[in-house]
Amino acid sequence: MHIVVRESDEEVGRYAADVIAQIVRRGGATIGLATGSSPMSTYAELIRLHKEEGLSFADTQAFTLDEYVGLAPDHEQSYHKTIRDAIVDHIDLPLSHLNTPNGVAENLVAEAERHESNIRKAGGVDVQLLGIGNNGHIGFNEPSSSLASRTRVESLTQSTIDANARFFENPDDVPRLCITQGLGTIMECGVALLVAQGESKADAIAAMVEGPVTASCPASVLQFHPHAIVVVDEAAASKLKDRAYYDLAQANRERLIANGGTL
After folding, report:
1. Please, which residues have CB within 8 angstroms of residue 249's CB and are 6 or more apart in sequence?
2. Is the CATH number of domain 2-258 3.40.50.1360?
């Protein structure tokens, strides 16, 4: 696991966006998009790269991690609408290339299987952007999720429901179910790119990076990923015990690249 610590949210976004941009520039990429507050600085930088430096997503496919059950795609709080507002409507990614589970599908189990199948048909996700919940969830894989789980219908924990209530006028309107890519699905991506900011994420980051691999912290499964990159700000990194080593390793990587090497 490659740990990168940056001083600010904006610097986290710039680093993560550069990782994605390198893959997109190769052509024909498939990227995984996450919602929530953590990826927003990454999206802001990708939009800037598109508008100011010509980064094109015209031949890119995109898959979202999850969707609320019960919200139509055009609902203001659906993740389909959220991801369009955050990035897709500001770049040249064709809307037909945006793949999101349908939260109002008649058969939700079949819809989850369809999303999983479409990822496979696209050749898998080249780079998956991820956030992390305070309880260690990624996607909507809540604690106790199988580390081998696939895209499925899942129940949200009360803590996740409470955290999402700020987006709804009435707390009773917050969905209790979702369709989410599974941990096994996520683990098949080429690069797992997780971003986190703020002290509220420090415990989850420490558990993910330095704790045991356990379903109690679903994100800890990324310890088994061959190409996992974790980009955090100083506050989110504040409880990492081996911080000095991570900084040393990152400095060595940057020195190697500066001298013409590759990783």
Report:
1. 2, 3
2. yes
